[in-house]
Amino acid sequence: MRTRFLIVDDSELVRKSLRTVLQANPDWEICGEAADGETAVALFRELHPNIVILDFQMRGINGIETARRMSEVAPAVPIVLFTQHASPDLERHAREAGIRSVVSKTNAFPMVGMIEALLGPADSEPAATGSAGSGKGHAE
Amino acid sequence: MREHEKVNILMVDDQPGKLVTYEAILNELGENLIKARSGKEALDHLLRTDIAIVLMDVSMPELDGFELADMIRQHPRFQKIAIIFISAVHLTDLDRLNAYQRGAVDYISVPVVPELLRAKVRVFADLHRKTHQLETLNRDLRSLSARLLAMQDEERRRIARDLHDSIGPLIAALSMNNGLLAQQTKKLGPEVADVLQQNNQLVEQLSKETRTISHLLHPPLLDEIGLLPAIKMFAEGFAERSSVKVSVELSPVIGRLPPNVEISVFRIVQECLTNVYRHSGSKTAYIKIAPSQEKLLTVQVCDEGKGMPRTNGVPASPGSNHGVGLSGMRERLRELGGTLEIQSSENGTTVIAAVPVTKPMVKNV
After folding, report:
1. pTM of the entire predicted model
2. At what angle do helices B114-182 and B325-336 cross, to 10 degrees?
3. Which one of B177, B179, B233 has the shortest CB-CB distance to A87?
């Protein structure tokens, strides 16, 4: 089963680049895209992604608040904050909101490795996607 | 009050004949003349009307002129009233001194020389008008300056946002594309790989510069997660750029504050650190933000520099030698009902800003 990504960024250009980077891995697919936090939370409930790549600064609710709402729905789904403003303080707030990892937009190269680490060796197994994508992870 | 607007002159005497005389003398000034037959009646007028000048007899039954002057001076709203005594008795130097100690501006003895009385009253009427005009202008300037500061904040926020929205995604896309290319380095010749590596560095540098400009314009964390993370991030960036060692002590009980308080406190700290770097020569700076009372936030920025320039042994008036920095801080604090204190010696400067907050500070982030 392929790993399904939800990507959230208010810039179409960033989403396009993310698609290119993520789809370079044949086991990964983009199941949905959103340009703001509210839409992202709705898509998260609807699409049951296995992982979320999330922008921080957006119109409306920011990435941390978006993550907090997603974590209430399915805490097992890893969320990666993808931001221009990476800092230790932001990272601390991000972790409190259930975000697993913060990646700087200006040095995106380690992102792929970080995602692989987050998905763990079970990536190829249904277990990882199962825990997040099953009814248990997405209690609604 | 307009340039030629009439001022109110209150004439107080228990003898109606004298009031009529004063009226005849002062009529040609064209001001509003109000008559009172006793101290009590005078107080009634004072409470109801904005009086510029009180012209009064010293000896009156019940409340005499000196007692009335005392009562006038005790009332905060009446501080600027010019009191002129007129007396036929009580003409010793001690009486005059008594009058001046009670805040009188003049002490005229009877018989009154009409031209002289008129001239004196005219001076104080004009002074009152000009004072009033200055106060109005001052208020207008304050409100203009507050609006300018708010507009400047808003404009900076907008430019920072524009940078984030326009250049930010381009940098992110460049960085990701470079990342993809880097995975193909084996297929590239060493020279191309080298150029790619240089491009990566350029993108990082571009990003860093943009970030610095954007953060100086408006710290993104301020709106999103609050004052304290924004201050910490700014202090770290400042220390890196300036080589001034900055230590930060922030009380964890401070949660989110109203947006105008957060931006003002941030700007005050930013201004202080800029002064440390530009003027103090200090290699260190210390920032402390903590509640000093339940609803009072104290912001303290210290350095170990050479201190502020001194005039006659006291630190030069804020704003006079430091551009708009310190006076800008004062304006921001005035808007918030806060205060600014500066302690400066050859061993360093400490700036202490106290900012009232409406709700008790409780961490809620």
Report:
1. 0.74
2. 100
3. B233
